[in-house]
Design goal:
Distance between the termini of chain A: 12 Å
Number of helices of chain B: 24
Number of strands of chain A: 18
Largest sheet of chain B: 6 strands, antiparallel
Radius of gyration of chain B: 36 Å
Distance between the termini of chain B: 82 Å
Oligomer: heterodimer
Number of domains of chain A: 2
Structural class of chain B: alpha+beta
Strand content of chain B: 5-15%
Radius of gyration of chain A: 28 Å
Shape of chain A: elongated
Strand content of chain A: 25-35%
């Protein structure tokens, strides 16, 4: 990690770590049980307690019997809402998160399926990442709902969602019950494509400044592949798109064209992250323009190739590059 | 128009509220304010309706909210109007009016969740405010409805609960209220009650209570008698006393200034004034309506006092604090009695007369004193005067001049009980017989259910007491000499009431007797309500708990009992919940059974371990079980996390569990 400053954990973080010390990241569906559900009043809850106290004093001062009954009724309702907030989470099944890679700067989307095994609906259940706003969903009786948790991705590499809160303020908003869930999932964040250098179009194996690519040229049509960010709009199969299908991009191969080497060394003295951004940009461009391309970084080299797999391999390497090589495990 | 164009530029609010929640809130607050309509000035009610309507239009037509400047103006205007109307912002009346005005203004700036919640809280305060005016059954029922709606608004205000649409939130809060009732009852009965008030109450706290006062001028009681309101109800342990004994003693008036009777100094107090009972005792409990006065009504003469009460030298029972809640107390009285000697000070008080005035009455009394050596004979002469001369008993007597007693005795000869009592005591004092005026209530109507009496303000009465050498203080009711029916059948039978001044409920045996009987049935419900619910204060709580056989109960024991009762209730709820969950989920139950059995063999499933992980671990630890446990874990996971399990699949899982040999 580039994070050089090591901060002392705050009291709150230490408390949370202590509370969740027995919990492991989940790989299987997790059923929320009593011992991992916590509950505390919200700001509204404290305000309500103050209101009850005022009503109580009022009842005493006026010796108002129905005032006492009213105050006690509201207190009992608040107590009942505590049970309900707890029950709203109890037995809920959280499935492991599904995630797809993103480019740095795009939100990393963790798709979490919440399952309600009980024949009663559950309302207002949210997932909340650290320092993120909660994403609410309703669960139908004996049904599931997919909640997509968006986390900002700032740096390339593996992004772990960290400890996620499953929370609810149902029914009155006076209390929040929550549970912590950690997913054994991480989002691979590619470097953000950037830089304005043209593709280094040269003869195979050659090095040096690139020649401008000559546009589409006389390429052979080689089928479709799904749209990916960075694809040229000119290559999108708009006809197919108007029929309501997913966005597809036409693939062309040009066997007569030489192979491209996207080489770290071509980028002179640029800082590491700028070089990686440029390389990323090149990979996307080369792929969309139908080049065969290879990638060379200090200590890593990917043989020229083409297609979705080649693109993914290159981007993975860029995402995980760390000066002296690439760590491939998360 | 310009004023609320600018509002769009204000910064975005916090967590937004859901439009259905706002609609619930608007309806509910309007209802709450309408419940107060009786005591709020009409302009305030109309103003509230106008602003609520405006806010509803803002929701409906998606207008923008008024600009902050306009809102501030409205708020200042509303507060100013309340201040101008009540001359204060403190106290019950102005306070409730201010709450309603604030709610109206707050509606116009409500945009986010926080504003909505503030409005719900204002609604709860309005409910409490209404209870300070009335705790009658219909009012309480109406307020319960408002609370239900306020809770519904509180649920639906949260945008994340928007999935609860239509009447679903109402069903939810209705269920919550029902489940809250047992807890509320336990708290109501067992939460130690603290005697109030904790600090001084505003002057208007108990305004508008009708009842006896500690002075009497001509007209005091005939005004009171036009109210059909219940003064108190009495439950007797034995039979009801005959009508002639139903004299309820209130303030005793000894000071006369020629027009006005007032109580003498009430300070010399004792826990009990001694007297000799001559007959059987009557035990009864009085459930007194709030009177904002200290006196406790009692049958002549009270012998045993409720705790904390004292007695004046005139046998008047006083509480240390004014009665501002429904108050229940128990008493014992002896209808037949003989009181003791008259002290010198008492004799002076009982013979006091203004220096001059009413000379004809004085002369008449002086004649009597000359003619009869026996005081009793003088008493009889006065009663004979009322009986034989053409005196009338009427609610609308003609006005009296400066010498009121003379004017009444020799000219108008029409009056109500206060005229007769006043003139009689004047004559007695002038004739040298110690005498005083006693005010209180006479009579009471038996309720239809249970042996209790309803005593209304219309039963208010004034009579006299004279002190006779061998008998002590003796009650003389001069009104009875004029209108004997008054004692037997109540005021309606006795009085000539041309103006229709008497309240409906005081007219016994009229055309609408069946309706009156219906009202009496309703009253039977009210006495139970008053006795068991409204009168449940610190004293009644201790009595009730010791009556259950706990002996003397202090507040620590109450807290203990409270916690115990709540825990028992909690266990009952938890048991019910567990039961329903168990029945609902046979798949989970089968798996738990497996886990429990494995735990006994030392293979405890960790909280984080899913069925597949756990069965792998078990398989590693017990290779002999590997195949069976893996199959079971997979089957369970498939049923648990896959599509809904069919009954056949569930049965198969249960079979697998049974056949697992550890």
């Amino acid at each position: 990690m580039n994070d050089a400053t090591v901060q002392m954990p705050t009291l709150r973080q230490r408390f949370e770590a202590w509370v969740t010390r027995g919990q492991r990241p989940i790989r299987e569906p997790l059923r929320l049980e009593r011992r991992r559900i916590y509950i505390l009043p919200t700001g509204q809850g404290y305000a309500f307690a103050l209101l009850l106290f005022v009503l109580f004093l009022w009842s005493i001062n006026y010796s108002n019997s129905m005032g006492f009954a009213f105050t006690f009724l509201l207190a009992a309702v608040a107590q009942n809402s505590m049970w309900q907030a707890h029950d709203n989470l109890l037995g809920l099944i959280v499935h492991p998160a599904q995630v797809a890679p993103v480019f740095a700067g795009q939100p990393a989307l963790f798709g979490v399926r919440l399952e309600n095994p009980d024949p009663r609906p559950r309302y207002g259940i949210a997932l909340q990442g650290q320092d993120q706003p909660p994403c609410y969903a309703d669960l139908p009786a004996s049904g599931t709902t997919l909640v997509t948790l968006a986390m900002p991705s700032e740096r390339r590499g593996w992004l772990r969602p960290g400890r996620i809160r499953v929370l609810t303020r149902y029914p009155l908003g006076l209390l929040q019950s929550w549970s912590w869930v950690e997913f054994d999932a991480a989002c691979l964040v590619y470097p953000a494509p950037r830089g304005r250098r043209p593709l280094p179009v040269r003869q195979a194996g050659a090095r040096g400044s690139g020649q401008r690519a000559e546009g589409p040229g006389s390429e052979d049509y080689a089928g479709f592949r799904p749209y990916a960010p960075g694809d040229s709009p000119r290559r999108i199969a708009w006809k197919a798109a108007t029929r309501g299908g997913p966005l597809l991009v036409k693939r062309f191969t040009d066997q007569t064209r030489p192979e491209l080497w996207l080489d770290w060394a071509l980028l002179g003295d640029d800082p590491t992250e700028a070089r990686l951004g440029q390389l990323c940009q090149w990979v996307l461009k080369a792929e969309s323009e139908g080049h065969r391309y290879g990638l060379r970084l200090p200590g890593v080299s990917i043989a020229p190739g083409q297609g979705e797999q080649q693109r993914r391999r290159c981007l993975e390497v860029l995402a995980l590059y760390s000066g002296d090589g690439v760590k491939t495990t998360s | 128009m310009k004023l609320w164009k600018r509002a769009r530029a204000t910064p975005p609010p916090g967590e937004p509220l859901s439009p259905p929640g706002l609609v619930w809130l608007l309806v509910t607050l309007t209802l709450a304010v309408l419940l107060h309509a009786g005591q709020l000035p009409i302009w305030l009610v109309l103003g509230f309706l106008a602003l609520a309507g405006w806010r509803a239009a803002i929701v409906w037509y998606s207008w923008s909210l008024p600009a902050p400047a306009l809102r501030l103006l409205l708020a200042l205007l509303a507060a100013g109007a309340v201040l101008a109307h009540y001359k204060t912002l403190l106290g019950r009346d102005a306070g409730v009016a201010l709450l309603a005005a604030m709610a109206a203004c707050k509606l116009l700036e409500t945009r986010d969740l926080r504003d909505g919640v503030v409005l719900v809280f204002l609604g709860y305060l309005l409910v409490m405010g209404k209870l300070l005016y009335s705790q009658d059954i219909p009012v309480v029922a109406g307020l319960l409805g408002v609370v239900l709606l306020l809770l519904t608004a509180q649920v639906t205000l949260h945008r994340q609960h928007a999935g609860l649409s239509g009447l679903a939130p109402l069903r939810l809060t209705g269920r919550m209220l029902l489940l809250a009732v047992p807890v509320m009852l336990i708290l109501f009965v067992l939460f130690p009650r603290i005697p109030g008030p904790l600090w001084g109450l505003p002057k208007d706290a108990y305004q508008g209570r009708t009842g006896l006062s500690d002075e009497m001028t001509p007209g005091t009681i005939s005004e009171l008698i036009q109210s059909g309101a219940v003064a108190f109800r009495v439950r007797f342990t034995g039979v009801l006393p005959p009508p002639a004994q139903r004299y309820w003693r209130g303030p005793v008036l000894e000071q006369f200034d020629g027009r006005r009777w007032t109580t003498a100094d009430e300070r010399p107090m004792a826990t009990l004034m001694p007297f000799t009972p001559l007959g059987p005792a009557l035990d009864y409990a009085v459930i007194l309506e709030p009177s904002n006065q200290r006196w406790l009504l009692a049958l002549d003469l009270p012998a045993r006092l409720p705790p904390g009460a004292l007695m004046t030298h005139t046998f008047q029972v006083l509480r240390s604090e004014p009665v501002n809640e429904v108050y229940r107390y128990e008493l014992r009285s002896y209808p037949q009695y003989r009181t003791g000697e008259l002290s010198a000070a008492e004799r002076v008080r009982a013979l006091q007369l203004p220096a001059r005035g009413n000379s004809r009455a004085r002369m008449l009394a002086a004649d009597w004193q000359q003619a009869d050596a026996q005081p009793e004979a003088r008493v009889n002469r006065a009663l004979a005067l009322f009986r034989e001369q053409p005196f009338y008993y009427t609610l609308k007597p003609s006005l009296l001049g400066v010498d009121g007693v003379d004017d009444f005795l020799f000219r108008s000869r029409e009056g109500f009980c206060e005229h007769y009592a006043s003139a009689f005591v004047f004559l007695m004092r002038a004739a040298g017989v110690p005498a005083r005026v006693v005010t209180g209530y006479l009579g009471g109507e038996p309720g239809t259910l249970g042996n209790y009496l309803i005593v209304r303000q219309s039963d208010a009465h004034a009579w006299a007491e004279v002190w006779l050498e061998e008998r002590g203080w003796v009650r003389i009711d001069p009104t009875a000499a004029v209108a004997p029916d008054r004692v037997r059948d109540g005021v309606y039978a006795a009085v000539t009431d041309p103006g229709g001044l008497l309240p409906f409920l005081a007219r016994r045996g009229g055309d609408l007797e069946w309706l009156r009987q219906l009202a009496l049935g309703w009253d039977a419900l009210n006495i139970a309500w008053n006795e068991w619910v409204l009168a449940y204060g610190p004293q009644r709580q201790r009595d009730f708990l010791s009556g259950l056989g706990f002996g003397e109960v202090d507040w620590e024991e109450m807290i203990l009992a409270l916690l115990l009762a709540l825990s028992v209730l909690g266990l009952v709820y938890a048991g019910l919940r567990w039961q329903s969950r168990r029945e609902r989920d046979p798949v989970a139950r089968a798996w738990q059974q497996v886990c429990k059995r494995l735990a006994r063999r030392g293979l405890v499933r960790g909280g984080h371990e899913g069925p597949l992980d756990f069965s792998e671990r078990v398989a590693a630890a017990r290779p002999d079980l590997a195949e069976a446990i893996r199959a079971l874990g997979q089957h369970y996971a498939a049923l648990r996390y896959g599509p809904a399990a069919s009954p056949e699949q569930v049965r198969q899982l249960q079979r697998q569990v049974r056949h697992l040999r550890l």
